[in-house]
Amino acid sequence: MNGPLNNPQLPVAVIGGGQAGLSISWHLKQLGIEHRVFERHGVAHEWRHARWDSFCLVTPNWQCRLPGFDYAADFGGRDPKGFMLKDEIVRYLEAYVASFDPPLLTGVSVERVRAVDGGFDIRTSSGRWHAAQVIVATGGYHRPIVPRSAERLPPHIVQIDACAYRNPQQLPDGAVLVVGTGQSGAQIAEDLHRAGRRVHLAVGTAPRSPRVYRGREVTEWLTDSGYYAITLDQHPQKETVREKTNHYLSGRDGGKAIDLRQFAADGMQLYGRFETIADGVVHFAPDLRRNLDRADDSYRGIQTAVDAYIAANGIDAPAEPHYVPVWEPQTEPLTLDLTAAGISSVIWCIGFASDYQWLEAPVFDGRGQPVQTRGVTPVEGLYFLGLPWQNTWGSGRFADVGADAAYLAQQIAKHQAATAAA
C-alpha cells in the first residue's frame, strides 16, 4: 500500500515497518483494529541496505517467530538450527508481509509526531494525519556513533561506520583499524581478517558467549533453563540491563564463538579501548587485558550457569572444560601511528544512538530514552515497541517482539474501548 489515503483520521498509527511494526500490525488486524504502518523506505530496508555481505543472524532460525508466521511451516525454513544470511532475512520479512497484507505505507517519512488534545498530529512526507493512538516501532538503534575526534583523521584515510561496510574489497589496499568489539565490530574484524587484510582492533568492553557447550547450542540451554523468559522486573539488574552491550558471537559457518585472543594469536593486532586521535596517532586506554578478561569471565559465567542447570535437573550431558585463554598480551600498546602502520581505512563500530527528535511528547528521561513499562508510556495512547529489554531478552529481536506486540495490542484495544464508552 503506497501513498496517502482519503481519510487522514486514524484510530492507530504505527511508525516503522520493520519486524516490530509488522508484528503489531498482525495483532491489530487479528483484533479488527484499523491502523496504518508508516515506513519511510521499504520492507526489510535495514537488513537489505545496512548490513555487510557476509552478515548472518547470531540467533538460530528457530528463534525467528514473528506472529502468525512459523519459520518452518510458513516460511518453509529447512534449517531451524542454522542462522539466516542477509538475503534470507530479507526474503523472510517479504514473505511475512505477503502472508497477511498489512496496511503498509512505504516511502512515507514521518517528520513529526506531536501529542495534542484527543490524540496525535502526524506530519509526513505524504501529508498530515491525525491518530488517536501511536506506536513507535522504530527500535532503539537509529544513528551510528562516530566520535568527534574522527574529524582529526588524516584526509587520505577512508572512514565508514558498520552500516556502510559491505566487504573487504570496497576498502582501499592497506591495513584497517576497526574500533569496537560488539557484535558488528568483532564480526567485521573477522571478515577482514579472513580476507587476508592486516587488521588492528580496538577492544571495548563487550562480553562474549560460547556458541555450543556440553553438546548443545547455548541458546537451547538458556531457553530450557528459563533465562529468556526472565522479565525486566524479575532481572537482578533491573533497568540497567538495558544498557548492557550484546554478547559477541557468530552465526557464520553454522555458528561459532568469537575469540579475540585467537585473532591475536593468528596475527591481528589488539589494543585497548579507543580514546582519541592526535597528529595522525591513535591513542588507546590501557585496558586491553582487563577487557579480554572480562569478556572471558562472561563466557565462563554462561558455562557455569549451564553447568548448574544440568546438575539441578540431572541431565546427562557430556562434560566439557571451561574456557582457557589461548593468548595473553605481553604488552599493551597505547598508540598507533596510522602512517607507519599503513592504515588506509577506519571502521567505526562503537554502537548506536537513539534519535527521537521528531517525537514531541513528554516521555523521555534525561538521556533522551523513552520512559515506558512494557512499551506503555505516561502519555495516554503512546507506546513503544521493539526496544532492547522492553520486557525480556528477546524484546528487540525476532524471538519475542511478537509477544510484546500482543501485549500492546491488548492495551490499544482497551484504550479504544474505554474511549468509545466515555
Summarize the structure.
By secondary structure, the protein is α/β, with parallel strands linked by helices. Helices cover 24% and strands 20% of the residues. The strands form five sheets. Strands 1, 2, 3, 4, 5, 6, 19 and 20 form an eight-stranded mixed β-sheet that branches.
Strand and helix layout:
Layout: E1 9-15, H1 19-30, E2 36-39, H2 45-49, H3 86-100, E3 104-106, E4 110-116, E5 119-124, E6 127-136, E7 143-144, E8 158-161, E9 175-179, H4 183-194, E10 199-202, E11 212-213, E12 216-217, H5 218-224, H6 260-265, E13 269-271, E14 274-278, E15 281-284, H7 288-312, E16 335-337, E17 343-348, E18 352-353, E19 359-360, E20 382-384, H8 401-421
Parallel strand pairs: 1-2, 1-6, 2-3, 4-19, 6-20, 8-17, 9-10, 9-17, 10-13
Antiparallel strand pairs: 4-5, 5-6, 7-18, 11-12, 14-15, 15-16
Pfam families: Pyr_redox_3 (PF13738)
InterPro entries: Auxin_biosynth/cation_transpt, CHP04046_FMN-dependent, FAD/NAD-bd_sf
Keywords: Oxidoreductase
Report on the architecture of this protein.
By secondary structure, this protein is α/β, with parallel strands linked by helices. The protein has 2 domains: 9-142 and 354-421, FAD/NAD(P)-binding domain (3-Layer(bba) Sandwich), CATH 3.50.50.60; 144-351, FAD/NAD(P)-binding domain, CATH 3.50.50.60. It is built from 8 helices and 20 strands. The strands form 5 sheets. Strands 1, 2, 3, 4, 5, 6, 19 and 20 form an 8-stranded mixed β-sheet that branches. It has a 5-stranded parallel β-sheet with strand order 8-17-9-10-13. Strand 9 (175-179), helix 4 and strand 10 form a beta-alpha-beta unit. The longest helix is centred in the last third of the chain and has 25 residues, at 288-312. It is globular and about 70 Å long. Residues 1-6 have low confidence and may be disordered.
